[in-house]
Design goal:
It contains 20 helices and eleven strands. α1 crosses α10 and α15 packs antiparallel against α16. The site of glutamic acid has 9 residues, from α6.
């Protein structure tokens, strides 16, 4: 039996970290088993449809290298892969259930259902449909169909006993049937509900393992009873645990943690770091190992490795991983990666000249061991591109010492006399100030850095000065002395 998994997003909003983590597990497991990974679009809720959602979802998956073997764009033998294009299929199977007495038309009006719900709330009884239409006789149904030819179709859930299943992550889960609801399979607009469509599709698309968010556990009895009603073999169920934010709360739009997946792309995380991070959020290979390439993840990913406790979205870990992957790049590669951010900041033109590229490469080398996300590049390199520095508040104390102007006048003169604007001569020139005045080397270096970069921190000062150039370095010392 070939393993077939599916990622089945509803295009109702921007992809969420939790959704994408599910997709990562689906993908890695399918690839580990030499199986298929299917992308199916569950676009049956027309009221919640968001145009940009699917595009973002597809972009996000492809960015991380999660290429689906079947689905939108690539096709496959089990399409269409958009549920909105499969309505006839759902109607056929719903009709089969009606014919077999396993589903029924429900003619209850919205008003009646609302009234029923209000009474249930008041009486504090479990919510759910009161099954009024469940046992209508055929004549009544025929009569009502004349008035309302498009009623909803409800599935007859069992009323006695229990429904149980074995979850790969959580073990055996048991549900009492008497509290289950006769859920809607086909809505009044002719579209199926999630429960119905996903089961019909999982069966027809020969899905072997359903790896999905834990919010669907409570719906599994509905799904299992549908399988039973059709006489189909259910898949293997895998419901990974939740992802929690750093405060230990369920990851949600209200968390401080950014949940929108696309934000991480925009912030300049590398796809390989993100994949590594997402795969190890709730899965473990059992080794004490941090870095996993995509190939290693595919090789090692098993369902047994999915942990049975909630995972934490650990941003410092993601940053750390991203830094590690950035450090593995060559400076030439990193330059290409930061280019769009530098162009957006206006530091590099759209069609950069040779000279611009040369400078960008030098600058890239200087931030290579410090940068965490690509989007930080403009902030880290600002002083290479903007001559009118904004001085870091913390460093202004350098301009308050009574000897600073005298000291910087010496530095300036020494630099003016320096003909070879490279590391060692620059060091010699600046440090010769120590022979001219009784000052501490720390004061000398920190004040020169403040004058030339406007900051108390950054790459090596002499390297920075090489890139900034003689004329501009001297201008910057003059400017600081004029301003303070
Ligand atoms: N369309 C559902 C969702 O977006 C899919 C759940 C499932 O994987 O079955 O959450």
């Amino acid at each position: 039996m070939k393993v077939r998994t599916r990622f089945a997003p509803s295009p109702t909003g921007s992809p969420h970290i939790g959704n994408i983590r599910t997709a990562v597990f689906d993908y890695l497991f399918a690839m580990h088993e030499g199986g298929d990974f299917i992308l199916r679009v569950e676009d049956t809720d027309r009221t919640r449809y968001v145009e940009s959602s699917l595009g973002d979802m597809m972009k996000g998956l492809r960015w991380m290298g999660l290429d689906w073997t079947e689905g939108p764009d690539v096709g496959g033998d089990y399409g269409p892969y958009f549920q909105s294009e499969r309505l006839e299929i759902y109607h056929k199977y719903a009709q089969q259930l009606i014919d077999e007495g396993k589903a029924y038309y429900c003619f209850c009006s919205k008003e009646r259902l609302e009234e029923m719900r209000a009474l249930q709330v008041a009486a504090k009884t479990p919510p759910g449909y009161d099954r009024k239409c469940r046992d209508l006789i055929p004549e009544e149904v025929a009569e009502k169909l004349k008035e309302n030819p498009h009623p909803v179709i409800r599935f007859k859930m069992k009323r006695e006993g229990v429904t149980e299943f074995e979850d790969v992550v959580r073990g055996k889960i048991t549900f009492q049937n008497d509290i289950q609801d006769d859920f809607i399979a086909i809505k009044a607009d002719g579209f199926p509900t999630y429960h119905f469509a996903s089961i019909v599709d999982d069966h027809l698309m020969k899905i072997t393992h359903v790896i999905r968010g834990s919010e669907w556990i409570a719906s599994t009895p509905k799904h299992l009873q549908l399988y039973e009603a059709f006489g189909w073999e259910p898949p293997i169920w895998v419901h990974p645990e939740l992802i929690l934010d750093e405060k230990g709360k369920k990851l949600s739009k209200r968390s401080d943690t950014v949940t929108a997946f696309m934000s991480y792309i925009d912030a300049g995380y590398l796809p390989e770091a993100m994949l590594n991070f997402m795969a190890t959020m709730g899965w473990s290979s059992g080794e004490d190992k941090k870095l996993f390439s995509k190939e290693e993840l595919i090789e090692k990913f098993t369902l047994e490795g999915i942990v049975n406790h909630p995972a934490i979205f650990d941003l410092p870990k993601l940053n750390d991983l991203n830094g590690e992957y950035i450090r593995m790049k060559t400076s030439e590669e990193l330059m290409v990666l930061i280019m769009p951010y530098m162009q957006k900041a206006g530091y590099v033109s759209e069609n950069p000249s040779e000279e611009e590229l040369k400078k960008l490469l030098e600058v890239t080398k200087l931030i290579h061991d410090r940068i965490v996300t690509l989007s930080e590049a403009p902030m880290l390199t600002e002083f290479f591109y903007k001559n009118d520095l904004e001085y870091e508040e913390k460093g202004l104390k350098r301009f308050k010492k009574d000897f600073w102007k005298e000291m910087m006048t010496h530095v300036k003169e020494n630099l003016e006399a320096c003909d070879d604007w490279t590391y060692t001569p620059l060091e010699t020139a600046i440090k010769s100030t120590l022979d001219q005045m009784d000052i501490k080397v720390g004061d000398l270096m920190a004040t020169t850095r403040m004058c030339i970069t406007g900051r108390t921190w950054g790459p090596g000062l002499y390297e920075c000065m090489e890139v900034i150039g003689k004329e501009e370095c001297i201008n910057r010392i003059n400017r600081a002395m004029e301003l303070y």
